[in-house]
Write a structure and sequence with these properties.
By secondary structure, this protein is α/β, with parallel strands linked by helices. The chain is 46% helix and 15% strand. Among the domains are: 2-223, Rossmann fold (3-Layer(aba) Sandwich); 320-406, no CATH class. It has helices at residues 31-37, 43-53, 68-77, 94-104, 124-127, 143-166, 178-199, 206-213, 225-234, 258-269, 284-290, 303-313, 336-345, 348-356, 359-365, 370-381, 387-406, 435-447, 471-480, 492-507; strands at residues 24-28, 61-65, 82-85, 109-114, 135-138, 170-174, 218-222, 239-245, 248-250, 253-255, 275-279, 294-297, 320-323, 329-333, 411-413, 426-429, 466-469. It has a 5-stranded parallel β-sheet, with helices on both faces.
C-alpha cells in the first residue's frame, strides 16, 4: 500500500518546484542611504507586508550592513543568498565591494541599487561589461522592487530544474536600462502573481493553491542580444512570450535594431508566439506590425495599462473571451468549467478562428496546465476532418482534466463557493477536522480510484459522492440550538430524533 500513501498524486510534481529560495539578503548602504530607504518604515516590515499582500510565503530576512568592512565580516560568519549594495558605501566603492564578495563566493548574486540614473556606473555600456555585479536597479521607495529582485533571482536559480521537471513556462524580458528594469519587473511580477491567484480553481483545497503558485511562469531578464538569444535557445519549447526593448547591446556595441532582430528571428521559428516590442522610437511601431508583434511606446502615459492589456489579450491572462472573426464577443469563460460550457455553444466560425490563432492553447498554458495545453496545441496545428470532431475533442480533453484534478481530493467548499456536482466527488464544508468517520471516508475516496492497479482485487469498487460537514459546522449547530447541556445519558435514538427534528425545522423555515 506504500504507493497509495499521500493526499494527492496529481499535484505531487509541484512539491519539487522552486527548491532554491532567497532566504537571507545582505543590504549594504551608507547610513544616509539606509535612512532614505527606511524613511517610510522598516524595509523588512514592508517586504513582509508585500509578500503577505500577494499571498506569497517565506519572506526573506533583510540584514543591514552600513559599511563594506561590516558587510565582508558578516559574509564570513553567515551565508547569504543575495547581496544588494549601493554604488558608494561609507568606506569603499560598491564595485570594489562586489569584487571582494565574488572572490569569497564566486556564485553569489550581487545587485547594485542606486537612487538615480545619473550615476556613471548606470550606463548600459558600463554594466554590460561588469562581471562582478549581476544586475543594476534604481530605487523608487517602492518595496515591490525588492520583492521583484528577490523573485527574479529565484527564477534564474530554479528555471533549469522547473522547466525540465514540470514544463513551467518562461517569459523573456530583454531590457538594458536600470530605470525601465526597475519599473517593468515589479509590474510584471504583480500581474503574474495576480493571474496565478485568479486562476486557482475554487474547487481545489488550500494545499493545492499554495503548490500551484510555485508553477507560475518564470521571468528571465536579459540585458543584451546574446543573453536573450541564449535564453530563447535554451528554453525555446517553454517560452510563453517575449518582451523586448528596441535598442540594446549586440556584439558589444549599441544596436538600435537589436530588438527587431531578435523578435524577427523568433517570429520565423514560432509564428504564434506572443511578442511585445517596447521602444521609445515610434518608428518601430510599423516594423513591429510587420512581424505580428505588439508595440508599446515606452513614453506612453498609460504604459502600465498597455502592458496589462498585452498580458490579458496575448499571453492568455484573465478571462477567455470567445470572439467571432470580426472581433465580436460570443461569450466569456472565467474558469475551466465555463470554458467547457462555452466550447459546447459557440458558433463554428468562432471555434475555427481561435484554433487557427492558437488562442485556446495559450489561455490554457497561462494556467499552468501544460499537458492539456500541449494536447490542444497539437490539435490546433493539425488538419481536422470537421469542426464537429474538433469541438468534441476539445470538450473531451477539458472535461477529462477537470475530472482528473478532483479525483481522490478533499475539496474545501468555501463560503460562496460553487458546488459542481458533476466532477466534485468528496466535499468538505466548514473548517476544522473531518472527524473520525469523515477522515476514514476521505482516505477510502483517495485510495479506491487507484485500486485498479491491485491485481488481487476481484471487483471494481466505486465510491459514492460525499459531502462532509467539518467540526466547525457541527460545533456551530450545537451552540446555535443550545445543545451543549444535552443529557448524554439519553439513547442514541433519542438524540438522533432531536437532531432530525431541528433539521426539519430549518428546512421548513422554522427557528
Amino acid at each position: 500500500m506504500e504507493a497509495y500513501i499521500g493526499v494527492d498524486q496529481h499535484f505531487s510534481l509541484f512539491h519539487d518546484l522552486m527548491q532554491k529560495k532567497v532566504r537571507n539578503v545582505l543590504l549594504v548602504s551608507s547610513p544616509y542611504d539606509a535612512f532614505i530607504m527606511e524613511e517610510d518604515g522598516s524595509i523588512s516590515t514592508r517586504i513582509i507586508n508585500e509578500f503577505h499582500g500577494l499571498n506569497l510565503s517565506n519572506p526573506p530576512k533583510i540584514t543591514w550592513a552600513l559599511s563594506g568592512k561590516e558587510a565582508l565580516e558578516k559574509l564570513v560568519h553567515k551565508r547569504f543568498d543575495l547581496v544588494i549594495t549601493m554604488p558608494e558605501v561609507s568606506d569603499m566603492d560598491g564595485s570594489d565591494l562586489a569584487r571582494q564578495v565574488k572572490v569569497m563566493y564566486g556564485d553569489m548574486v550581487i545587485a547594485m541599487l542606486s537612487h538615480s540614473m545619473a550615476n556613471p556606473k548606470f550606463t548600459p555600456e558600463v554594466h554590460s561589461c561588469t562581471l562582478d555585479i549581476d544586475r543594476f536597479f534604481v530605487w523608487s521607495t517602492d518595496p515591490a522592487l525588492l520583492l521583484a529582485i528577490i523573485k527574479n533571482v529565484e527564477d534564474h536559480l530554479n528555471v533549469e530544474s522547473d522547466t525540465q521537471n514540470a514544463m513551467v513556462r518562461v517569459i523573456i524580458l530583454v531590457e538594458d536600462s536600470p530605470y525601465y528594469i526597475s519599473k517593468l519587473l515589479p509590474l510584471i511580477y504583480k500581474k503574474i502573481v495576480q493571474q496565478t491567484q485568479d486562476i486557482l480553481d475554487e474547487s481545489l483545497n488550500q494545499e493545492h493553491r499554495l503548490l500551484k503558485m510555485r508553477a507560475r511562469p518564470k521571468i528571465l531578464l536579459a540585458t543584451s542580444y546574446e543573453e536573450a538569444q541564449h535564453f530563447y535557445e535554451r528554453y525555446k519549447k517553454d517560452v510563453l512570450g517575449v518582451i523586448s526593448d528596441g535598442r540594446y547591446m549586440r556584439k558589444c556595441q549599441m544596436d538600435s535594431r537589436a530588438g527587431l532582430r531578435l523578435l524577427s528571428k523568433i517570429r520565423k521559428e514560432q509564428p504564434s508566439l506572443p511578442l511585445l516590442l517596447l521602444s521609445a522610437d515610434s518608428e518601430n511601431k510599423e516594423f513591429a506590425h510587420e512581424i505580428s508583434a505588439r508595440f508599446i511606446d515606452k513614453n506612453s502615459a498609460t504604459l502600465d495599462r498597455e502592458i496589462q492589456s498585452f498580458f490579458l489579450n496575448n499571453l492568455g491572462f484573465g478571462d477567455f473571451i470567445f470572439r467571432l472573426p470580426d472581433g465580436q464577443s460570443a461569450g466569456r469563460a472565467t474558469n475551466f468549467k465555463s470554458f467547457e460550457e462555452g466550447l459546447h455553444t459557440v458558433p463554428d466560425e468562432c471555434l475555427v478562428y481561435h484554433v487557427k490563432n492558437h488562442h485556446f492553447s495559450t489561455w490554457v498554458m497561462a494556467r499552468s496546465e501544460v499537458v492539456l495545453a500541449s494536447k490542444i496545441h497539437r490539435a490546433e496545428s493539425q488538419r481536422y476532418a470537421d469542426v464537429k470532431s474538433l469541438r468534441e475533442g476539445l470538450i473531451r480533453d477539458v472535461h477529462a482534466l477537470r475530472k482528473e484534478r478532483q479525483q481522490g481530493v478533499v475539496v474545501h467548499l468555501s463560503d460562496g463557493g460553487e458546488y459542481d456536482r458533476e466532477i466534485m466527488d468528496f466535499v468538505k464544508i466548514g473548517h476544522g477536522s473531518l472527524g473520525g468517520k469523515g477522515r476514514g471516508l476521505a482516505f477510502m475516496a483517495n485510495i479506491l480510484p487507484k485500486c485498479h492497479t491491485v491485481a488481487a482485487l476481484p471487483l471494481r469498487v466505486k465510491f459514492p459522492k460525499t459531502i462532509v460537514i467539518a467540526s466547525s459546522g457541527f460545533d456551530a449547530f450545537v451552540e446555535e440550538n443550545s445543545l451543549q447541556e444535552l443529557d448524554r445519558a439519553q439513547s442514541d435514538e433519542t438524540i438522533a430524533e432531536l437532531f432530525l427534528f431541528i433539521c426539519r425545522s430549518y428546512h421548513a423555515g422554522g427557528s
